[in-house]
Design brief:
NACHT domain-containing NTPase; about 425 residues; about 10% strand; NACHT_NTPase; P-loop_NTPase; 19 helices; alpha/beta
């Protein structure tokens, strides 16, 4: 196949953007925070997978995966079509990112190899839209690649869709989405490779099942794995607290929450935590403790002078406002450049905005965003310099910074903060 100079440039631009995204998200994981700030590792090492994984390929029986076998190896064994299942916070997205990292390296070494792209199915809102059309629109929007180049890549099977966020759709929409994916997989322009990850409990409720060649299930951690990890993370004192409390062990079986426990330990009032009656209350207590710890942590900031950092009582409502707006728009990423009038909350704010538009002759000379920022910051919805604050929140492992975009470290945290 011949490639034009433009298509070559766009393919390389896309590959570099995906590489930056994958590295940024892996480097800003909570385990990396533990390695850097608790274990004080200057060059954090890749760790072995924490959780057990069951694998089923084709009609073969289900087997337990050896810790030495990577998700990329499983992907190849399943002919490049893999479903990744597990509970929320079990490590599905981490597995998808590790797979993307491997596929990026292959695509960098060989121009004829397809480029992986990580996309969120939660944005598939129009059930009449085919998955290829949705994919093209998403790649164009997310990675700023020309539509013609994206179409060429998709139609020539030079894209590996790595699809997350299916469980962000309601159950009926999930089923329609699964049908749409299967329809693409049965077409002439079907992708050679694809991976999809979603929550097992939701997937079980869907009538439609994906026609992929392999599936993995990420198990919750068991007690020995929890103990081993805590000792390795110099958190033996935390293990002494957890080991005789079945309700805490149950939370710690979730790898995301276990990492939060380690990072938030100094904010955990154990006796108060014990008195809580339900798992939901204990989980919310942990998430609140994690937020308090991250906002009060004595870390030197690259974005604020010492003593000028945002006070926790100011930072918390800014994060709540951000999470609320992202949830309302069903977004997992936000860019400060994309601030628009949908962020206005009250009729008073909207009236001020309309007045500002009139006084600046319809918001000429780039005044629209200035007016929006002034209104929102005056109402304490956002800080004056919100890019600076988002960078600060990413230093504290509340947000992740990917290029000029930001996302919460996990959907669990975004959902929780939006309800605060």
């Amino acid at each position: 196949m011949k490639h034009s100079k433009q298509s070559v440039r766009d393919r390389n631009k896309l590959l570099e953007a995906v590489n930056i995204e994958v590295q940024a998200r892996l480097e800003q994981s909570l385990h990396k925070a533990i390695q850097i700030h608790i274990l004080k590792q200057e060059k954090p090492q890749q760790i072995q997978r924490l959780w057990d994984v069951d694998v089923k390929i084709g009609k073969r029986p289900t087997v337990r995966l050896s810790p030495q076998i990577t998700i990329a190896q499983v992907f190849r064994q399943s002919s490049g079509k893999l479903l990744i299942l597990g509970s929320q916070g079990a490590g599905k997205t981490t597995s998808l990112l590790e797979l993307a990292q491997d596929l990026v390296e292959i695509a960098q070494a060989n121009f004829e190899q397809p480029v992986p792209v990580i996309l969120n199915l939660g944005s598939w809102k129009n059930s009449k839209q085919t998955i290829p059309d949705w994919l093209i629109a998403q790649i164009k929007s997310k990675y700023h690649i020309s539509q013609n180049s994206v179409k060429l890549l998709v139609n020539n099977q030079l894209i590996v869709p790595l699809l997350d966020g299916l469980d962000e759709l309601d159950l009926g929409q999930q089923d329609l989405c699964l049908r749409a994916i299967n329809q693409w997989l049965g077409s002439e322009t079907r992708p050679k490779n694809m991976a999809v990850c979603t929550k097992l409990e939701d997937y079980k409720k869907c009538r439609t099942k994906l026609r992929l060649h392999g599936a993995t299930f990420l198990h919750p951690l068991h007690e020995q794995q929890i103990q081993k990890y805590l000792v390795a993370c110099r958190s033996k004192e935390l293990w002494e607290v957890l080991k005789d409390e079945p309700q805490f062990i149950e939370l710690a079986k979730n790898s995301l929450l276990l990492n939060m426990m380690i990072l938030a330990y100094e904010e955990l009032l154990i006796q108060a935590w014990k008195r809580l009656n339900s798992e939901q209350e204990r989980r919310e207590y942990l998430l609140n403790a994690y937020i308090r710890r991250m906002l009060s942590w004595n870390l030197k900031s690259l974005y604020y002078r010492e003593g000028k950092e945002p006070r926790p009582e100011n930072a918390r409502p800014w994060l709540v406002y951000l999470a609320t707006k992202m949830n309302a728009a069903k977004e997992t990423e936000v860019s400060p450049d994309k601030l628009d009038k949908t962020w206005l909350q009250t009729s008073g704010q909207k009236s001020l905005y309309r007045l500002g538009m009139i006084l600046t002759f319809g918001g000429i000379l780039g005044m629209k965003k200035v007016i929006l920022r002034r209104i929102l910051s005056k109402n304490k919805c956002i800080p004056r310099n919100y890019s600076q604050f988002y960078n600060y929140a990413s230093e504290r492992f509340l947000l992740q910074k990917i290029g000029n975009k930001y996302r919460f470290v996990h959907e669990i945290l975004q959902e929780h903060i939006a309800k605060m």
